[in-house]
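thoughts on both lines:
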Amino acid sequence: MRPILLSTALALCATPLWAERFEATAPVRTVTLYPWGANITRLAEVAAPAGAHEIVIPGMPQDMDPASLRIAADGATVGAVSLQEARALPADGAKTPAIVEAEAEVHRLENALRERDARTAAIRARAAAAEDSQRFLLALAQSEGLGSADLVETMRIVREQMLEARQTMIAAETEAAASEQGREDDEAALSRARARLDALRAPDGPERALVVAVESAGEPFTLEITAFSQEASWQPVYDLRLDREAGRLSLDRNLMVAQSSGEDWQDVALTLSTARPSDQSAPSRLDPWFPRLSDPVEVPQMTASRQMAAAPVAEMAADASGGIAGAAVARMMGATVVYDYPTPVTIRSGVDALRLKLDSRDLSPEIRAEAVPARDSSAYLVAETANSLDEVILPGEATLYADGAMVGRHHLDLIPAGEEFDLGFGPIDGLVAEYEVPEQAEGGRGIISRSSSSTQTALLRVRNLTGQEWPLRVIGQVPVATQDDLKIAWSADPRPSAENPDGERGILHWDATIAPQEVREITLRTEMNWPEGKVLTGMR
């Protein structure tokens, strides 16, 4: 009985060791790119007989996260999975078709360069032989013991041979120079081919291999391998082009993608998601707040507001066990916007950024000049528009163009569908803004007024020195009282078109048109009163 049990145990232990190994490649096929990070999916096509096998897939990147690794099989059953260093690789590592092609191109260019150098060397050898013949003939002509008749004949022969040798040297040098032409181009082509081969080969550092135990039914099957990488990102970038004559604002949407995963993504199906799996996924936690009374000697005196602000901080420090929660076609996946890029994309590892075009949309703008005389010496070109897309405009950097000229850059915040927003397209030369304070009592700019009242009269002026009429908005400001004891009154001539627009307290708008060479002037008077003995701060 004991020998039978022992032999059975040995057979069971040896089965995984006797499983046949097969090597496969698993190129990246699809990538879902997030603002920070990416889900990378590979496909490995495997042909193996029925039974238990180990599938070895070399060339896995160093940043592959084992915890995020997911493997599914179509036509086989997946067992144990391990991510190992180079020692797990077979001796004859598989090469991708791209590497095989690149190696063949390097060998071809190396052979072509060697053949060119051999042809040039042969030509120069003929020149060297002609030069040797010339030296021999000169030595022969100078030899002693020749009679006068022999000397004449010898000189004739030497002259003919010397001429032939010189002609051979000249022809050989000319041919060698022609053979050298184009060698630098061949060297450059070889250098580029070697660089391409280096880029296709495994990244620096030890190579990793994925070893997958499978049970095959005997038919070819496919392994789908998905893992998350932190070394990738994408962000939207925009070009906003204002055409005043056409009354059109074009929004060109582009995507900037980058990755440094250690491998190139060749012709992958790219999806861009606004989800942020690397960020906080749940709301923060509020721990119980327990204010406590302490001996006044132990607690430094502070204001009530500072005590309230400090109490939860002190409590959290005292109770370390509490803890806080740690750390291009658009479609919707729940609350997430997803863009499916329409064509396969190649993204090289380590490239700073790749710009991909998404689409271009036209918006309907209201174009005007906008002046803030209290701050600026010129009016600015402004387009007021709305997000007429069926989706949000994501936050991103925008380059602004007005009538074909680049005028600046601007960061767009997230703009929901249907929401209005303004864009500035640079100063308008010839629309001059001026701000004067001809009358000010009891307090000047930057001066603390210690009396019980302050009166100011300001002039807001815009001069149109251009040759065209402009729709104009002048923006002014009056103080806002936040205390009952401070009384503020103001008046304006002319009256503003809008007060407190969009809930901005104290902001005034004057909307009108300004003709060529016209001057528009607004008189704004403010009066503030407060009790005696109080000090007014915040004066402008």
Q: What stands out?
A: The CA atoms of residues 477 and 507 lie 5 Å apart. DSSP finds five helices and 26 strands in the chain. The longest strand covers residues 420-441.
